[in-house]
């Protein structure tokens, strides 16, 4: 065991890098140079690829626990990428040969004169080359399909092994038998560990051989400087950029947090690559160390994520930069635990990965898992106790930030419950279950913290870009011709959609990943979940997403610009009335937006022949819930084309009378005399009886007054007075001439009705008011009184 501990210390120096699967020089053809002819894939290359895949299958079949399948799964993914690169290198050559054969044309028939011998020979050579390329592509496609099937099989095996490990019961951590494999390991385990140490020594000897020591020393020192001094310099430089180049406000704060995490990740990755190159620039790692290097890389990045995200979110050195609502005493209490947890996981998980990579017995692996779960349990328990004590003190002091932080309380409760379950599992012998809970807890912290940082950065970026106070918002206002309110709506919409998408990705990542999951595995898992059969049937190509977004934005801009040109320049210079102009402008916009949507879907790669199921779904939806909307939409199109009513008409329908102000896609806006707006569905304007007062453009208004006089008046005198008043009014038309009609004779008096015509129905009310004032004035001057209503 003493030699093993010394060897583990040497591992940290030699293998602190991302290891790649061991690939011989004959496995793959070299990547084609951009200016050189594209190479082919020989039969030897295909055999080497098949042997490589068979070796991966052998490693997978010999795995006896969940973690031993992580490395082979990554290598299968790398194998698939290599197949894709080879296929991509052959596709241009296939296209070139196809074009050349097309130029030569088909071989002439017997009835045609024989062609020249050199052309026939050239055609035969091209056909032979194309057949070879086609065969190679077919074989590569078969290998890729086998590898893809293997990925699916690995997922099933891992799921089965995980279920069996979680339900496996061993000795409790309180039992001496649980610790015996670590105290007194089996001779076979000692031998496997010694093999692992020997491979480390061989790798170190290769890197430290005479003539290479100087370069190895330089690379190791350089990687150390990048990891320490370089990280600090990168952090300070990015912070300076954010402070001096980012606008003051939320975006600067979220950018500072993101830059802090990015500096740590970037410098760590560079340092790891330098170390890896220093150790393996001449001889690749042996298979056992390559497997260990793959897993060790994941552990390193997980630990770096823990420290970098904690530093970025807590921001104890600059509390004003802190994104989450965490009280300063709580942040100071949490600060040291991130480094302690990361260092603990780095050491303990590395030791367990040594056992997995060297193929040690399951007893050693289970004991290592128990140690990890126990130590993490202790660290998190101490963290919860200290944070709980600080929170109680702050709550007692009346800190509203702590008392009202519901999310912090939920996180505290869930973490406490997870630790209680983990402790119970350790005491009852379910060690793998306890390790799984602790790992998932740490993974949840990494995922939720990382996506929280991204969501805050997205939200703040949208607020800045669409803010009318900044140059970007002003440019968008001028480019799109929108107001401040529209910019605010666009900012809220984009931020909401983006944060919802990130939240969905966070949930998916939380369940499909874990500590030790690479970005490639996450991308493949997320792509499998999101890229369902529906998207494949529609042939939506993710690579065309940028083209679709550009088509949508440019189309909307063009429609807005053309509509402004129609409204402000072209239509006002025509002889059409304003209502017709408004109808044409609205119809143009509706058709334009429909065309833009179709072009956007086409740019996205949608095949219209595969939209039958969407049409069927829409038919069912229209039949049940969308029929009213569709009916109003079609009615709106009829109103805009047939124009039974138009903007500016005075109409009366269902007791509503007013002027049409706008005809929208679904409904029409009618303005009443009191300036209020009534929204009438378009279908009612088509299906119901409607009175259009101004449809013909020559409608006249009728100003009629009904007056009652006493029985003792002179009717002829009153008739002449009323007619003179009407004729002398400037708005009363001479043709047809006004007239007075004897309407009613009753014991209460004589009722006379006087009627005149005006140019427009819109001025009837004002005209009647003016006439009534003038008639009462003249009746008073003539000593004629109106009849008094009978007393009740």
Question: What can be said about this structure in brief?
Answer:
With 792 residues, the chain is α+β, with helices and mostly antiparallel strands.
How is this structure best described in words?
Helices cover 69% and strands 6% of the residues. The protein is α+β, with helices and mostly antiparallel strands and 792 residues long. Among the domains are: 31-167, Methane Monooxygenase Hydroxylase, Chain G, domain 1 (Up-down Bundle), CATH 1.20.58; 179-191 and 206-465, no CATH class; 701-782, 2-Layer Sandwich (Alpha-Beta Plaits). The chain has a five-stranded antiparallel beta sheet with strand order 4-3-2-1-5.
Share in β-strands: 5-15%
What characterizes the major β-sheet? 5 strands, antiparallel
How many distinct helices?
A: 24
The strand order across the widest sheet is: 4-3-2-1-5
N- to C-terminal separation?
A: 120 Å
The radius of gyration over CA amounts to 42 Å
What class, by secondary structure content? alpha+beta
Number of E-state strands:
8
Give the low-pLDDT segments: 1-39, 529-535
Shape: elongated
The whole-number mean of residue pLDDT values reads 77
Helix content: 55-70%
Question: Key features?
Answer:
elongated; MscS_channel_TM-2; DUF3772 domain-containing protein; 24 helices; 8 strands; 792 residues; cell membrane; 5-stranded antiparallel β-sheet; disordered N terminus; alpha+beta; membrane; 3-stranded antiparallel β-sheet; Alpha-Beta Plaits; Methane Monooxygenase Hydroxylase, Chain G, domain 1
